[in-house]
Amino acid sequence: MAEYKLYYFNERGRAEPIRLIFAYTGVKYEDIRTTKEEFRSKDSAIKAKTPTGYLPLLEVNGRFLPQTLAIIRYLAKAHGLQPEDPFDSAIADAYADTVSDLVTASLPARRETDPTKKKELGLQVLQEKLLPAMAVYEKRLSDNRQYLIGNKISWVDFVVFAFLDELHRKFGEKPYETAPNAKAYKERIANLPGIKEWIESRPKTEN
């Protein structure tokens, strides 16, 4: 049996889809959280483990795997969340890559320290990037589609759910005013066994 250790900061961020997969599958792991100050220090034991110098990092029986999507795809293959059809698998990659692009586009707003500028940048990203992406997911989830890939849950659902969940935390109901399918999808994922319990018990963090 694999022994998993997940290293990340004390926030949801790029590690949250990984935690969601662990929660849904019921696979045990150690959720190791550090501060950015500790990680950046020259004596950081965690940073010394990373092949790339970045988090998240998954340790599997003493071996180390970096990069969010690489970790997610590895866990998906190991625990039955990988689409079987090659084309469906590519579609899952495409929707996950879209989330990655959105996370990158949101970084200037997240890193801004001036409250007024931070709010302005956040609203700009919402209008120019996030709402158009919501329209893409809304269209995909039409015709009573339960999940993004057919009607069977896969790893990409946890990537997109984490994005939608964070969008709701930052902007409330506004992004969902014209996206009822995406809203219902988010609520459906939130109430899955394992996910519901994780959401109720996970550490409360600002990011």
From TrEMBL:
Residue span(s) of domain GST N-terminal: 2-83
Gene3D superfamilies on file: 1.20.1050.10, Glutaredoxin
SUPFAM superfamilies named in the record: GST C-terminal domain-like, Thioredoxin-like
Matches recorded under InterPro entries: Glutathione-S-Trfase_C-like, Glutathione-S-Trfase_C_sf, Glutathione_S-Trfase, Glutathione_S-Trfase_N, GST_C, GST_superfamily, Thioredoxin-like_sf
Catalyzed chemical reaction(s): RX + glutathione = an S-substituted glutathione + a halide anion + H(+)
GO molecular function: glutathione transferase activity
GO biological process, one term: glutathione metabolic process
Coiled coil residues, start to end: none
Domain GST C-terminal: 85-207
PROSITE patterns documented for this protein: GST_CTER, GST_NTER
Superkingdom to which the source organism belongs: Eukaryota
Family designation: Belongs to the GST superfamily. Sigma family.
Protein name per its UniProtKB record: glutathione transferase
Source organism of this protein record: Artemia franciscana
